[in-house]
Input
Amino acid sequence: MAEASGTDLLRIPPLYVRDGIPVFCAHDDYLQNYDQIATDHLDSLDADGINPFMSRDTVDDLEARTVEFALALHPKIDRILDAGVGPGSFLARVPAAEKHGVDVSIGYLQRVKEMGISPVLAKLEDLPYADNSFDMVISTDVLEHVLDFLRASIQLVRILDEGGTLVVRVPYRENLSAYLDLEDYDLVHVRNFDLPSLRVHFEKVLGLEFLGSERLQPHWRGTALGIFEDAIERSLVQEDLEALRDVPGLREFSGAYPTLAEDMDLHLAGLQASDPRRFQLVCAALSRHLTITVAFRKPVGHRFRDSLAHLVGPGQTDVPSEAAPVPGDPILAGIAGLQQRIAALEARHAEDRVANRLKALEQGLGALSRDIGASPERLPAAFTRGPGAAPRPVPKSPSTPRPLRKRLSINGVRRALGL
Output
């Protein structure tokens, strides 16, 4: 893969640049929500080193095992993108020649920029990178947040190089009822996943090759999110427990299992306090895994389905960007960015524009010839037969090829108008 800077990988210019970070999307309610989440996250980390959303041990284990999983499939990484980079905890562990991170939170991106990671502020649904830019794309704990899952995953595949590896980590069979009544945030998780749904999506719909998967962190999240979510009746629970009777600690637990889900949560909380080792064994048997990591390869010669063309867009080469950081008011900067985009689009369609102008000139030739008799002073004497005479017509010899006749007509109009 050819060496390129972060700016060279961008196929469109940013709307504006903030603190050295190119920005490609307007600040809407979605970004505002995740700015708040990022602020709470970073403030807690800076204050006491605590992740307010997940324990440090869990984060460390997830990141370490995901890195190990990715490197086993793709040992040498030239250029990697972390799509939803967050505070950069994953990329900090990855050996790669070039590290790039995209996120919707300026707070996260300011942090990873200090770590030497090339930052971009953009939504996954509209990534600004050129096709086939990265030999590895990683997205951990992100796709459950995006509003348009299909469009976002198409973008991840589009920017992945042929033969490259896509690694995705998402919550595993998560019960979303906890996200219906959020107090602090507008949106958090908006979908759940399992292995078959991920494989169907990335293999069958998007045309990738499945490389492997790994479920991580058996995790007790209460009866509402565990395997007993639909088994509150004692008889149903007892059947599940009998099937697990050989697991250490479950024999005592099953004999005294309460009938109410709330009592079960209290019982396990007590077991956690009194016998942490036994609690972990029981949780491993009764719990669902917290996350699942899957990996896919983009085959050589990959093409998206024709039915997805309206989401993928035509194949495009990089559009050089001469956009410089725009200081001052973000609204004015946004306007300047839009003007730059319009200029880039006009450059790409220059040939069509010239063709349209020539056609307009040709169509205007007839009207001009009608008007010229009423205003002969608009033409030099060489183009008139005398005062008030009609303009001399452009010769149209049968032997003159049609394209040449067009050029003669248009050149005559240009000379007549002094162009």
